Amino acid sequence: MPTFVRLLNVARPMGIARIGSMAGIGGIAAVLVLGAVGCATHPTGAQAKLARPDAAAGVLPLLHREDVLWLGRVSFGLDAASVADYRRLGREKFLERQLHPRGPALPEPVAVRLAAADPGAGAAGEEMRGDAAARIAAVNAARKSIYALPEGSEREAARKAMNDRGNRVAYAAIRRELLRAVYSQDQLEEQMVWFWLNHFNVYQHKAEIRWVIGDYAEVAIRPHALGLFRDLVLATLEHPAMLQYLDNQQNAAGHVNENYARELLELHTLGVNGGYTQQDVQQLALVLTGAGIAGENPPKLKPELQGFYVRRGAFEFNPARHDFSRKTLLGRSIPGEGFAEIEAAVDLLARQPACARFIAGELARYFVADDPPPALVDRMAQTFMRTNGDMAAVLRTLFLARELDAALGSKFKDPMRFVVSAVRFAYDGPVITNTRPLLNWLNSLGEAPFGHQTPDGYPMTELNWASAGQMSRRFEIARSIGSGSAGLFDADDGSAKGESGFPQLSNRLFFEAVEPFLTANTRNALGRASSQQEWNLFLLSSPDFSYE
Amino acid sequence: MISRRRLLQLGAAAALSGRSVRLYAAPPSGPRFLLVFLRGGYDATSLLIPYSSGFYYEARPNIAIAKPDPNQAAGALALDANWALAPAVRETIGALYRAGQVAFVPFAGTEDLSRSHFETQDSIELGQPLAAARNFRSGFMGRLAETLTGGERDAAPISFTDALPLAFEGTAPVPNLSLKNLGKPPFDDRQARILTEMYSGHRLESAVSGGLELRHEVAREMADEMRTSGRDSINTKGFELEAERMGVLMRDKYRIGFIDVGGWDTHVGEGAAQGVLAANLGSLGRGLQGFSQSLGAEWHNTVVVVLSEFGRTFRENGNRGTDHGHGTVYWVLGGGIHGGVIAGEQLAVNRRTLFQDRDYPVLNDYRRVLGGLFRTMWGLSADQCTKVFPQAAPTDLRLA
After folding, report:
1. How far does A61 lie from chain B, in Å, by closest CA?
2. Can you list the domains of chain B with their CATH numbers?
3. Considering only Cβ atoms within 10 Å of each terminal Cβ, which end of chain B, N or C, has fewer?
């Protein structure tokens, strides 16, 4: 047996300690028997009720099918640590931890790797260091120096070198998000970061966006992922990634570009049926004139305009480009006051009942069901209105709803959930060193991070991910994940080969949280596998694994 | 044996619980239809240039394309006294136009006024009356496939996309596969069987079996193509390569197809005779030309419609681009069509005729135009037309 397989058999110490305190192997066998009886239906009352420590017996309770599925929704998928935490804390306490992450959430090897410089940084250009403002400035400077070169091979080489640096910068950002998604204990936060990155989609291949996607994720999105919706809107509005993506940096008095204004209404806040008109789009576009990306030097302004200038990081509000006329948005009058108009407009949008309903509906579609139960969406929208758009509160309403329990087991995993949950499950042990295979799998399944060209983001329903072509592609990737040949333990830059070998998916986590609830079809297929790799393929391809 | 009626009932049941996919063997000859959806709202005014309109040159000081000039072989191609074709597609689509194999329908589109990409794309793909509640499980291509399924007129639908488009939603089974990158079939027969059986009775059962089978079939088909084709396909890439492969599959197997092409949302710096938009149009034109060639004799049985969710603002915006508009220009191509014309209801292009002082108006409703084409191509009855496009009387543009 390769060393690698043995390594994977060793779950995290925490998990082992807890499982060890169960009634040993006999405890697991009992789960199997009961699970087989209750296969594909709700287990009977013979099993311990939910995850509540059984103090009298001094052992932790067995898992109910609903617990496993619920945990699968809160997280990107089960791993030994999340199962152990859930059993120790019970549902409500577990949820509170997830809603209010206290960090540090990353296993040390991951934290160490992410704290290290971006791959290739240091030796390479200034564009790879610092915040968005510094990066944008460095990119502009580098472009300028390239254009200054005479046409020819030297210029071409410089252009190519810069392009390579851009690719590395974008990859570093994606790697960070993927490693966090796989390994962070704060799984709900990670899902929300991903949800918002998709809701406030930007496309890395437009303009200079790839240089700042890492900053967009970590500075604009992450701090607000479980916070106030209004802050999130404003943070994305001010970020150079969004300013470039939806062209608002070009939006100026006399040269109005309504692209961002329209999507801010349609996709970010109110929804297409949110009750706004073409007139509102045009008025909001005027409100947004002058919001752009800061240049190297502040603009030279007339004295009467200087007080209106705003600079925050790479964001700049340039009053000389702003239309100071009075606007009317959604029937409210907004006097011409410069940047204060933008804050007022964002506040106005975030307070709309249409906004609360739209965001509640999108969240419920992502976490609960393709056609979310209207009563649940209503309650979430009420929470949204009551708390001024506090996402932790809205998510609490969602995750404690009986409608969620009723929908468990029927949500098809989109590619991101499929890939991340498979890696969490299959490689729940030594930390992977190479995230390129994950990125390739996501590319191949059509859900590349920062790779959706249009501002609607990726769709979140089964309809969009379970066509004939997509299913066979998914099975290919299941095989790749299960065969261990993808190079997950190679060096990130391809410089060194790491251990390879297939993971042992029939592990303790499997017997504890998966096996008891398998459907007969899947059980049958697993029984026909001719090798461990093929067994892995069938499990990861199974309907049981495709749904959560 | 199961009766056809029973099959239809089963199909209806499958629509509730999922869909069933099976592969078709199309008869060697018969009508074929391909829908090319340009997602993003392409700037039709830079494709079909209203060169007789002085207002056009006023409204687009930076991005208008120069009038056709007989001394300029690489410039816009005059199609008639009012319209000219973009230089970027002159050699490809222009040549087909001269051969009577292309027509353009200006002032085409939908009554949907949201000016939202996503809303309008959805509503066009669904093809349902705007006033009614939407059924997201029923697209017009899906209904066409349902109408044609069975017998000589078997629809043999396929979508050349990674995901199944809304247009193909419905009860008729539709396999999908992007032809961008093709590889070997991933699984041997035993593995494919076990994978399929794992989904037995599941709502994804037929998607799973259909997907695995299609991979095998396309790999076989394309292997033959690579061996037998004398054409050098090394130089083609991107959409052009995809379109050639589509042509082969539609020649041999499939009757109605769908492909979408992105990158048309030109808010900034769209260019004129050259530039971003011209490059996209050029690739599209070469792709469609390659498609027509790889269909061989079946090109004469084939109709291609190129459309987009809306047109763009008639005036350029502050950034040498254009914003979301309304009416657009549809393309109709085919070896047997009565092309070489600008078809449908038309207006002189000037400021007064703009819709909301902003965009082209819509005079040719997409449901009526497509309904008319389908009716002629397949000899559909009034009931069948109504099924595909409810509450839309087909218009006969006398093209097909």
Report:
1. 31
2. 4-388 (3.40.720)
3. N
The values of phi and psi at residue A500, to 5°, are -135, 165
Are residues B18 and B207 in contact, defined by beta-carbon separation less than 8 angstroms? yes
Q: Tell me the ipTM for this assembly.
A: 0.85
Do B383 and B87 touch, CB atoms closer than 8 A? no
A174/A163 Cα distance (integer angstroms): 17
**B113 contacts in A (CB within 8 Å)?**
278
Helix (H) or strand (E) holding B386: helix B382-388
d(CA B177, CA B214): 8
| Whether B191 and A534 lie within 8 Å, measured CB to CB | yes
Closest Cβ opposite residue B204 in set A456, A471, A537:
A471
- Among B129, B166, B138, CA closest to B390: B129
For residue A182, tell me if it sits in a domain: no
Cβ contact B174:B125 at 8 Å: no
Q: Read off the DSSP letter of residue B78.
A: E
Residues A369, A492 within the same domain: no
Can you count the helices (H) and strands (E) in chain A? 29, 5
A341, A375, A407: which is the final residue of a domain?
Answer: A407
Per the CB < 8 A criterion, the answer to whether A491 and B168 are in contact is no
Cβ–Cβ < 8 Å for A317, A269: no
Residues B85-94 pLDDT 10s: 999 999 999 9
Kindly state whether B211 is in contact with chain A, defined as any CB-CB distance less than 8 angstroms. yes
* Shortest Cα–Cα distance, A104 to chain B (Å): 39
Out of B178, B197, B201, name the one closest to residue A525 (CB). B197
Interface test with B, best of A267, A472, A485, A547 (most B CBs within 10 A): A472
**Which chain A residues are closer than 8 Å to B118 by Cβ?**
266-267, 272, 454, 456
Nearest CB partner across the interface for B198, out of A464, A467, A542? A542
Residue-wise pLDDT for A430-485, tens only, equals: 889 899 999 999 998 989 999 998 899 999 999 889 999 899 999 999 999 999 88
Total number of domains constituting chain A: 2
A493 belongs to a structural domain: yes
Q: Which residues of A fall within a CB distance of 8 Å from B215?
A: 472
| End-to-end CA separation in angstroms for chain A | 32
Binary contact (A252, B318; C-beta < 8 A): yes
Q: Distance (Å) from the C-alpha of residue A475 to the closest C-alpha of chain B?
A: 8
Specify the pTM: 0.79
